[in-house]
Amino acid sequence: MTPDILQYHKSQPTTDRACCDRLAALIEEYLPEAESKVWHGHPVWFLDGNPIVGYSKLKGGVRLLFWSGQTFDEPGLTPEGKFKAAEVRYTDSVQINTDDMARWIAKAREIQWDYKNIVRRKGRLERLK
């Protein structure tokens, strides 16, 4: 885990820190080829410069976000925003299901929309994989 992500975790309250630690460990296990960093204030993992998955502390818990998650056709993920992102929220690390994470991350690797070039394309997303 990168130093900036470790610092992000240290700044979280105990319960949220446990969620962040668990999510980071699973993401790193299931997506070892990804680059990770704190981006726009929260930890995000990228493949070829394209954001794939990240999490952030929100009021009342931790939100796990998959940038292309609406196209995964997966129960447990809720649409977020006007693009293709989907999320799930946790208030305790015991809520994080390892099987779900493995499946969602496998789909995140295979199903990607080009967020890296969204500004250049004036808000239009194109499917990469």
Structural features, described:
This protein has helices at 3-10, 14-30, 98-110; strands spanning 35-39, 42-47, 50-58, 61-66, 78-79, 86-90. It is α+β, with helices and mostly antiparallel strands and 129 residues long. The chain has one domain: Aspartate Aminotransferase, domain 1. Strands 1-2-3-4-6-5 form a six-stranded antiparallel sheet, covered by helices on one side. The longest helix is centred in the N-terminal third of the chain and has 17 residues, at 14-30.
Q: Characteristics of this structure?
A:
129 residues; alpha+beta; Aspartate Aminotransferase, domain 1; six-stranded antiparallel sheet; 3 helices; 6 strands; 26% strand
Mind sketching the topology for me?
Layout: H1 3-10, H2 14-30, E1 35-39, E2 42-47, E3 50-58, E4 61-66, E5 78-79, E6 86-90, H3 98-110
Antiparallel strand pairs: 1-2, 2-3, 3-4, 4-6, 5-6
| Whole-number count of domains | 1
Please give the order of strands in the largest beta sheet. Answer: 1-2-3-4-6-5
Query: What general form does the structure show?
Result: globular
Order of helices and strands: HHEEEEEEH
Q: Rg from C-alpha positions?
A: 14 Å
Number of strands: 6
**Major β-sheet annotation:** 6 strands, antiparallel
CATH topology: Aspartate Aminotransferase, domain 1
